Amino acid sequence: MEDEWEPPVPAGYNDANRAFIQGFMARGTLTFPEGQKLVAAILSATEGETVDPESITQDTFASFVRTAREAVEPLDYDIRSSRDQVRNGERIWAFINAHSDPATQMATTHTPEEVAYIKRLMDLLFDEYNTVRMEVMAVDEGQALKASRPSKRRESQHVNGEDEEGQPSTTASDRGLKHSEVLSLLSSLVAEGWLEKSRAGFYSLSPRALIEMWSWLMATYNDDSASAKDWQRIKFCESCKEIVTYGQRCSERDCTIRLHDICQDRYWRTRRGDKKCPKCETEWTGDHFVGERAITSRQGYQRGRGGRANGSGSGNGRRSDLEEAVAAQQEAADEDENMEEA
């Protein structure tokens, strides 16, 4: 009988490293302050004396992360990091499945109907509410509720229980979710660290989700055959080269340059204050946004808040602020097309 395969372990791998991996997996993500506390607790236990978290340096934490990553890579896991786009650019490390998609990530903790809803939610974020004119990549409660059941259009795309690529599909048997179930699921996804809910009531992917599903998002929503000048649904910061779902965009509609808020000051300093788009040379005004501010910065949004709490729709047929804004943009696009044809 052949011996069972065991993954190789890095040189010097010990119980402290094992405890770090276990603690990291239990949390899913770590910031540096959280990492300091975790490493200090582990060293306190292994060394028999109290270790102050403040004494844990970046180098010490990086060493634990590096060893953990080497240990888990043969098992198709990885540790990657990204900066929080919204909260002051704090770096976040995530323990992830290296071959990740929503179904893989959610199947163990959510029902098939919930996983199917999550896929519809991804389509809302990165397809329906992410256009050349308005890159929102967020949804309010009203729009999230309207996706509770598969659309007839989407159902018609699946024949004999298979999707467009001939793979088995859950759509044929997906009866959707009740509104109360959607609200409960959204709360769970926020608590689990997959979604974030802003003060204005918009749901968007969390830093952890963006790290975890980066490859899947690129493969699902971007066109491999597109050129560098073509608009793509998944966009990257001109400065740090990480995904942008909250930031600024060039005021020239067809230009593809994007910047995180947390990167833009440093970026313009490197250009010695020349605040012109590096691609099209348009003056960079800083008031054209990626993310929910593409909605909330509009005058119509502020005027409409009086009748709707937190900018969210009721899910009962009334248009939400998001839907109204997108509709207005589509009307403007239609007018432009008519003028071009004339």
Description:
This protein has 342 residues and is mainly alpha-helical. The chain has 14 helices and 9 strands. The chain has helices spanning 15-27, 32-47, 58-72, 102-106, 112-128, 141-146, 152-156, 179-191, 207-212, 214-221, 261-270, 293-296, 299-304, 321-341, and strands at residues 29-31, 77-83, 91-97, 139-140, 195-197, 202-205, 247-249, 258-260, 289-290. Strands 1-3-2 form a 3-stranded antiparallel β-sheet. A hairpin with a 7-residue loop joins strand 2 (77-83) and strand 3. The longest helix has 21 residues, at 321-341. It is globular, with a radius of gyration of 23 Å. Residues 154-162, 164-168 and 307-318 have low confidence and may be disordered.
Order of helices and strands: HEHHEEHHEHHHEEHHEEHEHHH
Count helical runs.
Answer: 14
Specify Rg, calculated over alpha carbons. Answer: 23 Å
Estimate what percentage of residues fall within beta strands: 5-15%
Q: Please give the share of residues in helix.
A: 40-55%
Largest sheet: 3 strands, antiparallel
Strand order of the largest sheet: 1-3-2
Q: Tally the beta strands.
A: 9
Mean pLDDT across all residues, rounded?
A: 84
- Given as residue ranges, the uncertain stretches (5+ residues, pLDDT < 50) are 154-162, 164-168, 307-318
Distance between the termini: 78 Å
General shape: globular
* Helix vs. strand class: mainly alpha
Output the keywords.
9 strands, about 350 residues, 3-stranded antiparallel β-sheet, about 40% helix, about 10% strand, globular, mainly alpha, 14 helices
